């Protein structure tokens, strides 16, 4: 992973002749001690055996749902050849099933939003016939997405404070929801074990937020489809092709000898 590469490069730098001649031997010794400690942790991860502890279960769960949602923080990765082969084989159907389920969940949220908006307008405005606009549905879903975003960011901030600032929590949620997953922020395994209920809540919020994001994208697609932009572009393209053929035909006929 990226952190291992940094540690290995730092270890190589401490053995460079330039650092042997420097006057800051204390800094060099501290860096070497840090590198030895981190390399020991990396080697322990690579050579450890499977164990049935709460930390291991939490790490497995973390690896599965991060892989299924294609976030890829990089904090939990397979080291052995068997683990890498199993990841390749199992991640393909897992990611496909997750994408299908999120699509269905997004459609379900769109339908529920429309039903609730109809009931709201009939109850408060006493309207017999209610026409739901796609733009209103998109606005309501976007507000729901912001609400879930705030709850998710608060949970992330509560679990990882004071390491995580409020703006970092908002950034972490954005990177997670968009499945960018840079890996600079993630939920450590020990914190998941310590806050089990909150970890389950965060996982459920992540699922709801991704489904809501999918529903917002679906609503935006419906709005674009209702504007008939594609049909207008195709009609304009047909007119351009016809006019171009007409001009080309007239030019060709003018150049023909009498």
TrEMBL record:
Span of domain Potassium channel = 56-109, 145-218
- Where found, per UniProt? Membrane
Which ranges does the record mark as transmembrane? 52-73, 85-116, 137-159, 171-189, 196-217
Gene3D superfamilies, alphabetized:
1.10.287.70
Q: Name one GO molecular function term.
A: outward rectifier potassium channel activity
Could you tell me the Gene Ontology terms of the biological process aspect for this record? Answer: stabilization of membrane potential
Keyword Cell membrane set for record: no
Predominant location category: membrane
Keyword annotations = Ion channel, Ion transport, Membrane, Transmembrane, Transmembrane helix, Transport
Q: Does the keyword Cell inner membrane apply?
A: no
Cellular component, GO annotation: plasma membrane
A Pfam match: Ion_trans_2
Regarding the membrane, this protein is recorded as: Multi-pass membrane protein
Superkingdom: Eukaryota
What is the similarity comment for this entry?
Belongs to the two pore domain potassium channel (TC 1.A.1.8) family.
The record's annotation in PANTHER family points to: POTASSIUM CHANNEL, SUBFAMILY K, TWIK FAMILY OF POTASSIUM CHANNELS PROTEIN 18
Protein name per UniProt: Potassium channel domain-containing protein
Q: Which organism is it from?
A: Clytia hemisphaerica
